[in-house]
Design goal:
79% helix; 18 helices; Growth Hormone, Chain: A; 411 residues; globular; mainly alpha
Length: 411
Amino acid sequence: MDKFPPPLPVIRFLDRKTPPTVFTLILLAGLSALVMNIFLPSLPQMAEFFGTSYATMQLSVPLYLLFSAVIQIFIGPISDNLGRRRVMIFGLIGFMIATLGCIFAPNALVFLCFRIAQAVVATAMVLSRAVLRDLYTQDQAASKIGYVTMGMALVPMIAPAVGGVIEQSYDWHVTFWLMFVIAGGILALVITDMGETARATENTILGQFREYPELLRSPRFWGYAMAAAFCSGAFFAYLGGAPFVGSTVFNLDPFWLGIYFGAPAVGYFTGNWITGMYAMRFGINTMVLWGCMANALGSTLSLFIFLAGYGSAETFFGLMTLVGLGNGLCIPNATAGMLSVRPHLAGTASGLGGAIMIGGGSALAVLAGLLLTPESGAYPLILIMLFTAIAGIASILFVIRRARNLELNPV
């Protein structure tokens, strides 16, 4: 933890000589969330459009997450070397090109290729967090990340519903045109508002990658990274399985699936608000532990209700608000912890931590898609979410125990 907090940075809106405003960072983080889930209510109709199976189109979720993880490994070190601003601009341009490819794809294979390319938008999430750690101390960064992701949480609250309305009124192409237009507006904002925040370095990009072992040898980094990965793993499994559960198990139409699907975002918004208000008071370890416990509670209650024979769309999606609450408490604080292990490698830590989180999430999304059948109901998804939540609790308890044993924050 920083002993001597730096003075608060001077920030002016639409002045690219100063750091970006929180408003700009919220939009950047929100774009990543939008791309991930706005089109999910359209998956069954997209499968029909391309003449393929739902399972094939569902690959657009885990493949996107997998390549998002791979990209994040490179984004962090590159931005530590070349600067946040330049990498952010090129990432947004690449995303817009990939979105056009999705719109004009002639078949499912081409669509999936460009959907994978859309993962470059992970630049927005990684660098919005790294910018905050460039400017603030560990607990201050956790609070700011909480506020940014609180604003970002509004997107998954409304995006699936918007996607469902678009699907019923027009078709899935309009959803991707909406992504393209929004990305263009955010690109213009970044160009005019985002000044450089990365510390100048004489290190080469290759040298930046050579510093990965410095992070990989840190038990503290791994504890925070795995807590975030397991806690968010429940949500990523939800992304991969909830469309099937909603449409097949509960027979929801695209509009109502979009409405119900946004339930975790209500909890996520609340969790991030609590983080923004209380991270500096209670500390990041306590907040991460609370988040992992809330995550586990949501899955446990859902499992018991289904075992008792009272499972319904309302109980299943309603209890996902606790999973969202847990993620809202855990992820901003665990991220601040990861980024504070080596502050001069904030971009690298953000990218590597994000890659661990998203990579694990993509695997869980695939697993949920494979295990869910009309006969199994929602049970495989609920059990996956419960097991990952318990693993998240174990991860943060490891960090807390190590800190107590050493009587200082482990590094």
